[in-house]
Design goal:
The protein is an alpha/beta fold. The chain has one domain: Spore Coat Polysaccharide Biosynthesis Protein SpsA, Chain A. It contains 9 helices and 10 strands. The strands form 2 sheets. The protein has a 7-stranded mixed sheet with strand order 3-2-1-4-8-6-9, with helices on both faces. A 3-stranded mixed sheet has the order 5-10-7. Helix 1 crosses helix 2.
């Protein structure tokens, strides 16, 4: 049995099919994180129309084992379903961000962050029990400005555990190599922790559709090392919908291979600035 198996019992399940007692228990679990101390790390969970995923995400987060004072911020990015209702019922600090974009949602969390460190999460992702603790321990190491980690996918009828394992094996070799020179191309917002004050100096880009996480990484790497965590304690699982193409692992692999071959020099050179693509600009 995998660590995330129990959370799948409510993954992609309508909220009306979940007993009220479950959300009450979730609320009680989150109380263990309440502290009179200033938080060492602020955790920002962003979600837009994640009614069928947010419960499993919050459940995995509530089960995290952490010795440090933390705060959890729930950012509802203009959802039209019951995402916000669930966040509130779980007893989290709730914020509604009307402007729709990943950048606006992440910036909302960063703006309200009080911790020395900030950790970005997504509402469709499941987090292993020592995720927060491990991130904090690494963020506190000398010279580290930011931390990220690996991710995998939740198996479904079209993606078996075996096929996902094979895909992950190839993907992670690629990511390790790419991270050496271009960590900003490996960073994902759902698993991105960093120094709060430095990040607040510039903020997340809110005028682009995607890449707000990588843009932040480009800025932060000027001030220290970005560390990649590859162990099981920090390897999250997320929805297969984040794959490119038609959702096929094989097609996704071919697509990414073609992209990599076109820009092969990125494996050997660093970059301090990237040119915006017209189709990525929000108007």
């Amino acid at each position: 049995m995998y660590w995330y198996s129990k959370y799948l019992s409510v993954f992609e399940k309508p909220i009306d099919d979940v007993p009220d007692s479950f959300i009450k228990e979730l609320n009680e679990k989150f109380k263990k994180f309440e502290s009179k101390e200033e938080p060492l790390i602020s955790i920002s969970i962003i979600a837009q129309n994640e009614e069928e995923h947010i419960l499993s995400c919050l459940w995995s987060l509530a089960d995290n084992i952490c010795d440090y004072p933390i705060e959890i911020l729930a950012i509802d990015n203009h959802s039209t379903d019951r995402t916000g209702e669930i966040m509130k019922a779980a007893g989290l600090k709730y914020f509604y961000e009307e402007k729709k974009s990943l950048g606006h949602a992440r910036q909302c969390g960063l703006t309200h962050s009080r911790g020395k460190y900030h950790l970005c999460m997504d509402g469709d992702t499941l987090y292993p029990p020592h995720f927060i603790q491990t991130y904090i321990e690494n963020l506190q190491k000398p010279g580290i400005i930011a931390v990220s980690s690996f991710w995998s996918f939740v198996p479904d009828k079209n993606h078996s555990v075996a096929s996902i394992k094979m895909y992950d094996f190839i993907k992670n070799i690629h990511l390790r190599f790419l991270f050496l020179k271009r960590p900003e191309l490996v960073i994902r917002g759902m698993i991105f922790g960093f120094d709060t004050k430095k990040a607040q100096e510039i903020g997340f880009r809110t005028n682009i559709r995607r890449g707000e996480d990588g843009a932040m990484a480009v800025w932060l790497k000027k001030f220290g090392k970005i560390k990649l965590l590859t162990g099981r304690k920090t390897r999250v699982v997320t929805c297969v919908r984040t794959l490119d193409g038609d959702g096929s692992l094989w097609d996704n692999f071919i697509l990414k291979t073609k992209r990599s071959m076109k820009g092969f020099k990125k494996y050997f050179t660093s970059k301090a600035e990237y040119k915006d693509q017209k189709d990525n600009i929000l108007h």
